[in-house]
Amino acid sequence: MTIHFITILFVLLLSPTSLSASEEVSFGTPEMKLVKESEKGGRKVLRYEHDSIPEWGYAKSQQDYFHVLPLAGNPGQKPLHVVLHSAGGSGAAALDRAFEHPDWFHFAGLEDQVILYLDCHKNRNDWWWGAHSIRQKKEKYGDVYCPAEKRVLTTIEWVIQTYKIDHNRVYLSGISMGGSGSLGIGMLRGDLFAAVNVAVPAGIEHIEHRMFGQEVPDPPILVNFSAPNDKWSKDQEKLITYFKERKFQLVFAWGPHGHNSSMAGYHPAAQLFPWRSIRKNEAYPVFSSASTDNNYPGFKNAIGGDESGQVGALFRWQTIADTPGNYQIDLRLVSKTELKPALRGKTDLPTTAHTVVSFRRLQNFKTVAGQTYQWSLSREGKTLQSGAAKADQAGLLTIENLHLSVQSARLEVQR
Question: What is the pTM of this model?
Answer without folding.
Answer: 0.93
